[in-house]
Write a structure and sequence with these properties.
The complex is a heterodimer of chains A (346) and B (284). Chain A folds into two domains: 227 residues, Rossmann fold (3-Layer(aba) Sandwich); 110 residues, OB fold (Dihydrolipoamide Acetyltransferase, E2P), CATH 2.40.50. The mean pLDDT of chain A is 88. Chain A contains nine helices and 20 strands. In chain A, a hairpin with a 3-residue loop joins strand 16 and strand 17. Chain B has 284 residues and is an all-alpha fold. Chain B has a single domain, classed as MetI-like fold (Orthogonal Bundle). In chain B, 76% of the residues lie in helices and 2% in strands. Chain B is built from 13 helices and two strands. The mean pLDDT of chain B is 85. Classes of the chains: A alpha+beta (346), B mainly alpha (284).
Chain lengths: 346, 284
Amino acid sequence: MSGLVIREIHKSYGPVPALSDISLNVENGKFLCLLGPSGCGKSTLLRIIAGLEASSRGQILLDGRDITKVPPHLRDFGMVFQSLALFPHLSVGGNIAFALGIRGASREVQRREVERLLDLVHLPGIAERSIMQLSGGQRQRVAIARALALKPKLFLLDEPMSALDAKLREAMQVELKRLQQELGITTLLVTHDQKEAMTTADLVVLMSRGVIQQVAPPLEMYRKPANTFVAEFIGATNLIDATSLGGGRVQVAGATVTIEQAPPVGQFTFSVRPEDLNLKDEASSSSLVGRIAFTRHLGASIEVNVSVDGMERDLVVAVPARQESSLSIGRPVHVHVNSATCVVLR
Amino acid sequence: MNTRQPQSLIAYMPILVPALLLTVFFVMPFGTMIVTSFYENRSIGAAETAFTLANYQRLLSPFFLWLVTASFGLAFGVAAISILIAFPFSYLLVNAPRSTQVGWLIFMLSVLSLSESIIGFAWSTLLSRTAGISNFFVLIGLVDKPASYAPGLGALLTGVVYTAVPYAVLVLYPILSRVDPHIEEAARTLGLSPLKTFLRVILPMHRNAIVTTFLMLLVFTLGTYLMPQILGRPQHWTLSVAISDQALVQSNIPFAAALAVFLVVVTLVIVLAVIQFGRKEQAI
């Protein structure tokens, strides 16, 4: 099978497993994001794919070739490190052509390749400059160019943008995605920033404690989280405990709402995004009654916390900014729950 | 207005105190030495305040020119050998487990705490014919009969390098421990073996640190005067030995001062030349 195949990769440091039986298939040309909180094992997984760390067991195949025991430089990937790890004693061109030089490419070939790669990352004509003279964003691009110099099959990035300021980071994310689409190179990006994952990835792999929680396209992961961890990690959400009354009716904190996909009996938790809840003045067949506890303006929308008797946490509701006038604190409101937007989690 | 004056004086103290100490304990003695170097010598340690260039003219004699050559030859040799040992050693030490690092650093500090004469006599015993390592070589069948390695150039180099290496390690260790570990990984992913990573990335990356450490060792070795007397033969004696000899044995203070001034000037010229060379290299 073509692409990157990871089979039951396991890694433990002493008795603690850092990765437990990770399996993944990445089709050629896809942009995959390994997302998760720090310590979830995402960087370890990337380093195992790169061969910088050995797995305790498991197998890695790249286009059908078993690379589990192959040394890093023969695995056919380019890598960008968190610190970028550019060689400070070499010029921009020297850094980019480094791998070509080792492989005995002529000076002319090196010069042409450096020119091509610098054009690719939109930094033409700076080959002679010293690394020390570059800005953070420029260094980032040089690191990308260096990683792509050998035209690898696989492009690995380990939180490369964490050192950039927010504005530049967003611009780089868009540029990285464009570059990846232009080259059609299979790319794995490690990040803890869900926005970065949403911007760049075709497929997001959400990890926690060495286990894959969900693999899905970004929007699907947002709309249909597989479990409470995913629902809470990706975007803001309300996790609501409910008891099924059968026939799609469920009891929540003394009120009854309709959730068609609810199990026939028993207790369960469902997730509903703030923007999917509505505030109404009158009760409906599927609403909870509460009081406005707190409001927060976020520019395009207002985040309203509604405290409902019998619920531990406030419900968070996002309402369009124009409804501002009716949102005085302490005012009683009805929160309308739309069954279609709720995701039942077990 | 009254309160301002003491305030500004106190504000100047952080500069004034070091400036004063520097003047009293460094500039003045050095100035005295320069002045003395132009005095005429009147036997038994007394100097006459008559101006003369004779002390400096005497420096141009073949004997003292040889002394200068030998001193700088020894200093360059020791600095080069020490760097060759200390740089790879520090690099390995930085990558070693924490407990190993601490052990070695304590050892290095203990060596520094020993006096130069103790180290010198210890080496002269170790390299002697009667009690030295050559007996061990005989035991394992490496040589036929015990030999004496001290005094000699090899013994002298060994002794001075032994005292110089800990300085070099203690200078290089913090620099090397700050190196981003990803640099080596990046070199690996680009196709360099660990040895080539060291030679083509780590070494050139630290060119400036190596040059600085080399200069420090050079100056350090130029000042050594006990080791050449304990472990070297008279032809290995350095300018520093001659200075102490002139000052303490021959009681020719003005000539000793001239030698010292000369040593300082030549050292400064070398340091400036190396720095200038480094700058030019960087510009290219």
